[in-house]
């Protein structure tokens, strides 16, 4: 057949006698002209442009610029493309009814489609290269196309074609579109003036794009890239080659930064405050403020959501149409006739009756629906993140202004503030995410029910009723879930507290053989936690079950009702469309319960927030007002109005500081003798209204040292805080000499450290000056401590860093105060945690030399009266009043009584000093630090176990291994996890899952068979019965599977925790020295939590969605085998999408987690150090830091959610392709209509589940990390607890005598380490008192550990009472000896429990022990006596008392051998004397081995062993050893004197 433009069967087509423009053929040809014109002009420009400038494709984003009407143009072009598709389809369908080919019906439309596509590509390239002159070509095109289409429309009107004809409508719409596009083009010319004007408008790209640090391009790319997240490709693909880090994700764009959003929200909130200002009982509404600030994006998101939901109903309708069409064709096969030639116009009815048209429409509807849905999600996510940033900034701003009394009186605890930050803001953010659902759902439900009613009549209402009635149950389950989660949390907190205690006191537990008692107590708590976990799991599985069962029940009810009430047979079209509608209906109902729950939580969160934002603020002194408001205002001034003013190269911080610098660095005052601070008639209170300080009249002289002294609790610290403005001023005034109140260097009594390096803690925001830094660290004797740290002064300390002792922390805080360049320094009791050497050194070097030379004003609160002679001015306080003020001479003359009192106190202090001179607390602190640090190499090793994969990468650094490792799913770990739940459960789970999905498929298959029957209703009952049975079985199986998964998860969690706890408790002591406590605790907290609560639902969801997808693909392939061919490319695409996404998602999730912690820490550390920050005037710097941390966390989260959108858009489009191929394949085959419906129904479900498969895979991969970490600890070696001797061979009362023989003993910590004791030989008689001494590291303590076999005895032996200890079971050995350790350890519980956890002794015995330890009277005075509670770590007793408790504990255990390991190191002289006495009397008949930390303790011992470098150097009585002039012992005694 020859082709002709207007067909060769109608000669009249080429007749132009009635005029050229009346000829159809000519008009259609005319329509080709504009399109061809555009293609001819633009193709050369596009190719030349791309060729000459090859970088154009990966365009650099700083030239990105949007022309006016950018988004409108994209929307119009997309609409135009859609109309073109309709035109092509209409042309092809019309053509099919002709005798010969009529190209004019569809060719112009095809070329038009190509031209429209070219136009937008062309426009995009002009826009990225910012060369608007080339837009003229487009302008001409729109004009020509508009004219050509108008001519066509006019001709139709002349011929009397009306709206009922589709072609007329299409042409009309196109005229409008071309007109609008023309208008957009004219607008660009008007605004940019690039032609017809002498001065075109110069435009600069947005500021964010000039900043190369901004990598988040969503706001700046074109509409297509926005909708498909195309710009994310580079990031997601690059994740394969190297992990995504903070640098790769860059900074937040300005509009999303916390500061910008804070300013918005703040203004809105202030407005609300003004509204309710004169109504005292009404609070300003945060809801309204949030709506004011973030209302527009929420509305936008809701619009997208409505569009998506309405498009969602296209699925069922199209299915119904296609299946209906099949039925009709099978019935109307006989009645097709050739249509009349001249009438080639289609009505829309005929057009939509075509199955292929419906398939394409379904495909487009799906693509649009998914795009809108993802857009809606993205907009809510972005708004939620912005809201969270703004709220965090608001909370932080408020924290900085909180009145101190609020925090100290417990109205606002740190816990509450942390909850606000960590929980309430997130609740609000989540609520915002789910917000559009609130108003979209009702619409969706109503629409769904109407459509169902249309399809099935009354019986549809039965099904809808089932769904609606079961919804409240969902809500009930959801609330129960929340309750169960809360109780689980309480128990796990308790369990963690106990675990923490075990780990802290593990050495003591092992030495006393008490591990199992404590282990059982943790197991008990774990069982309680487990019970609530069971309820949690039950409700989780119920909720999953409801989800799956509700649609089944609804479908069952509907179809059975229909079968018995309707007079017509159920048609396949009805059946499958309604099935599809039920699937749509379930989602909103399931989500509704979640949304309602979140809404309730959000309301509570807002109440808490409002309470917090309205709580008391600190009093406004004149200087304070001027200062604190400046910080944010100055930022706002810039960002809000003219962004040009910000110099991008300088962060905001410098602008914040510029005002500070002008004021802070003022020349030092030269004249001395004036008053720095003066308080007149001051009455101050801590917010209770009662004056804590009354009648205060003092002055503080400039450039001199003022000391404030007085008894504990007389108001010394309060006085400092009152001067700093932290207390409420009831009356009176604090006068500052005007130039001094900018910043005060203040060191609080309780040391406050930042989570930062040592250096940052000391400089604290001031510029680093090496000389000054060195002087300060020397004055505070920090250098030796710094040298011990692994990275010197670059080591992280604070909450998350290395734990320092009290004295070390205090010295760092004092160093910070000295280092600051301020005129005034306040030190609050800086000597309290320091020993005498350090105090003197600090006084001499730091205060007298460093501060006095600088002529800085110093106010010093202290108890150490011996420093009074150094003071220039003294303020003595008593009971909140000033007792005396003046120089020491004044007081000596005027108040002799006070002076004498001071003198006696000084004498007493001096005597203590002499004793104290021996006790060198600092060297002890350093020793503890060294002990904590020395195994740091091995500590690093342990952390590396997690990263062994990364290490392999370093060895052969080629790309393929890196890729392989980063894309590998941890299957081994998964298998370990699954099998730890037991093989029976695993089998049950797999079996029930497979069975359930088979039944679900069977139900739908049955339905297809039932509806495909012929008209006769003969088998109705048989089919109904079968259907009901299958549905019933399906519902039961749903319950069984959801229960088995949860049950298996629980069993696995139970076993893993049990094994972990037992493994840790039996681990060798060296493991605890090497592994940071936090690392072990993490396995019990975060990782256990993931295993308990997160893995089972993820696993359930993953298996469910995977099986659903597989069964769907199976069904479609069964219905239309051709589909399998199309499956290959789709499968390959899916594989690559999930592979790339998993890697990127894992990195982004880690970034999100790791950036969250510093933010929370920053909040809590600010709340703890409020007074210091305010005294230092560093609010602005801390705000800046908070904004940076918030933005960092937000950008990570934003990228994570953008990556999820990236994945979902791609899997959704893949799903749409599956639907299209399934539909086309089934139309081509044209088999039974029932199975077509079945195939399409399943194809539609795939779109919902594909992205869940990938998301769950990625989540599971991250969560399996927890199992892997736990497993790595399970591979640790345990101590060898079994001995070679039987219990029967060991005498009951061994060791009775206490005779010890040490024979050629060699000891090391581990087989691969050097020995710490070499060939030691000694004999200790029963009942002898032995002293052991030697320098640090000489092996004294190792010997004490060798008695308990805590270290590896690899040669020689220790024989006690004739039994070689290496043959004894460990438990027996350790339970028969006693030891008192250097650090006293007490556990939370009663005093009785602390003395005798095994509950073996009578009360009399315990009282006797307490009496010996001189604690009886104190314990008697406590409420409850022996049952009085000990807080965690024994904090409610002093160190001395704790040590005495340990002594009592050793006495309770009637052992004939007692070892004291430097037991007196951390206590004062008085307690030490008690101890010595007790040991001599109460333990007179027992063998006592004392490891001395001061030689003076062992001078009267029966025998002294002196160690040096692991070798026993000397061994004799003390008096004999002292006779040796050059002996080691003599040297030790001399140096210590």
Task: Please provide a written account of the structure.
It is a single chain. The protein is of the alpha/beta class. The strands form 5 sheets. Strands 5-6-7-3-8-9 form a 6-stranded mixed beta sheet, with helices on both faces. The longest helix has 51 residues, at 515-565.
- Into which percent range does the helicity of residues fall? 55-70%
Radius of gyration of CA atoms, rounded to a whole number: 41 Å
Distance between the termini: 121 Å
User: What structural category arises from helix and sheet content?
Assistant: alpha/beta
Mean pLDDT figure: 81
Could you describe the largest sheet, including whether it forms a barrel? 6 strands, mixed
Strand order of the largest sheet: 5-6-7-3-8-9
Return residue spans where pLDDT drops below 50 for at least 5 consecutive residues.
51-60, 334-343, 621-672, 934-959
Residue fraction in strands: 5-15%
What is the tally of beta strands?
Answer: 21
Count of helical stretches: 53
What's the overall geometry? elongated
